[in-house]
Amino acid sequence: MAIDRQSSLAPLLSSLRSSILGDNFTLQAFSWMPSLDLESVLKEPESLRGELLSLASRESWPEEVRASIGGAFFDRYQSGLVAAHAFALNLFRMDEDNWFSFEAARKAASWFEEPTKLAERRELILAKGLKYRSLMPGRIVPPDLPLIADLMEGSLHALLIGLRD
Questions:
Q1: pLDDT tens-digit readout, 79-124
Q2: Which residues lie closer than 8 Å to 115 by C-beta, 6 or more apart?
């Protein structure tokens, strides 16, 4: 189930586009409400894997991508401060970038730090080992696919970011 474009993710996307991602970057977000309670999905990696597989099927991602989801490792960052740094590092590793500094990327990702209540936090999950480059043909992509869990909204988001360099 899709969520409203005015979701809580909008400020992050706007921050990325206005501060570090120029015209040579493509940014695509997939947002949905999981089939189970989000807390339950996050507690069990197989549930998160199932949610990502459902997204891949709905969006008709290539078989290579769907097959690699089965072997992906999920690195979860529950702290907003740490999530902002991990998100920035993943972006920076895309091209050890000459397009933006690590600090600029961290500042753009400070959206993760905003909720002050634990129940309203935003978590970053990096899907490692996922072969998703074919989703952004002709572009350099970060090594890990960023997934975002918004606990206040109860939503999941997958971000595709590609650099045409």
A1: 999 999 999 999 999 877 678 889 999 999 999 998 778 888 999 9
A2: 80, 121, 122, 152
